[in-house]
Known about the structure:
Elements: H1 21-27, H2 40-50, E1 57-63, E2 69-75, H3 81-89, H4 96-103, E3 108-110, H5 114-122, E4 126-129, E5 136-138, H6 168-178, E6 184-191, E7 197-204, H7 210-221, H8 231-238, E8 250-252, H9 255-263, E9 267-271, E10 277-280, H10 284-289, H11 298-327, H12 335-344, H13 352-372, H14 375-395, H15 401-414, H16 420-440, H17 442-458, E11 460-461, E12 464-465, H18 475-482
Antiparallel strand pairs: 1-2, 2-4, 3-5, 4-5, 6-7, 7-9, 8-10, 9-10, 11-12
Helix pairs in contact: 6-9, 11-13, 11-15, 11-16, 11-17, 13-14, 13-15, 13-16, 16-17
Keywords: Membrane, Transmembrane, Transmembrane helix
Family: Belongs to the GerABKA family.
InterPro entries: Spore_Ger (IPR004995), UPF0353/GerABKA_families (IPR050768)
Amino acid sequence: MFNKRPSRGSKQLQSVMKPNYEEYLKKKIQVDDTTIPNDQTSFQEIIKHVFEDVGDFQVRYIPKNDELGLYVYYISGITDVTKLEEQLLLSDELEIAALKENIRNYDYYEADSWKSCIQGCLEGHVIIHLPGEVPFLVNYVKKEQRTVTEPTTQYQVYGPKIGFIEDSRTNISLIRKLIKDPRLKLKEFTVGTLSHTHVGLLYLEEYVDTDLLELVTSRLESLTMEQLNDGGEIAKKIVDYPMSIFPQVYETERPDYTSIALGQGKIVLVVDNSTFCVVLPATLFNLIEISPDNFRMALDNTFIRLLRIVSILVATILPALYVALVGYHPELLPTTLALTIADSRNNIPFPIYLEAIMMIFALDVLVEASLRLPSFVGQTIGIVGGLVVGQAAVEAGLVSNTMIIVSASTAITSFTLPTWHLISSWRIARYLLIMMSSLLGIFGLTIGIAYLTFCLCNLSSFGKPYLSPATPLNPKELWNLFFRLKNNQFTKPK
Length: 494
């Protein structure tokens, strides 16, 4: 139900794709991708045919003498036209030979194929065609990006107040500012037949596992998709168990978290147009130990991690345990508590399991509503839903006071987890346990917990066991996970 092992081979990364550049050029335009004419007239006819009905595609002719001149092709919205005119096009006094030497001072490259030529123009580069020469492209990309600001979803009291932005190059530079080491390597990929999204793979040489690096690289190279707009999309395509509810990677918008992960031998994927970087592999304890604050005391970190583990158990098991005890085994409760719960449920028309499912479902609806709405409206929804609706439901006799306490405790403990993906995973598991408890009581709850444990033990993230270092047991690493008394996060892993 939760884990589905992917089939072998690269078929799992393939999908039905629409024609790409090569097919479009050959079938629609009847152009051989490897042949670019030196003649200006022939090149202009083809490039105009390619960008037919593209309103922001511009063609300019710059005469240099009576017979010779140069043609400039660019897309106005994504090209820095002002910089282009100031540095290149206003050099009317330069002849063709001098202009060639002037261009060599800029970031340029020759168009070796129609695909690279067209793609470069779509990225904001300027195509310059001199008479009798092969066209080349000059980097005049117009960069429109927001400044580096404080992270909005991963807040911390102490530590740097810098978060990633939507530009992958800028995000890579933020990481390099934290790791000033030549062993920080970068591999670049282009993903998406339509979006052509830049993806950067970062790792620390001598820290990363070579088998892991080869596995991730091969999956990225064989990945085919039309559009890539977020790191989560690429994560779903390359993980071991795409149908599992438990996250096998984690996303972060903090450069400091990313640098720590690289020092632990992990791989980071930086995706253009996304403010989150993907860190892999990720185990359950990796997701728990992500700290929202850089505590100065080591025992503070130990307490927080133990608190999060207890919170996972409470948020997942408490509603199902309440259903099992009240509905099937009230004799296991203390007499006073059993009488109090029975008195609170005296006039409730619903059975205990239906009451629990209704309240947990209402809780999830309120959470989703508060997340999707603007911040000022979301806070209002949370207050109104938590106080007014809850109190009205109790006064109307639809739910009991005890169920409100159980639901509130479940919500509070679930939000102590540092990543939303992990919160969502245990939220789904909570429904499974409630249903098992409603059928078989404590015995059903035990079966549900055993099944979840089996799924977690069977799960792996890029070949690493999901419950590592608890299973397979590594006592030293497990002790270091909870009682890290020294700052050894950047120690080379053994």
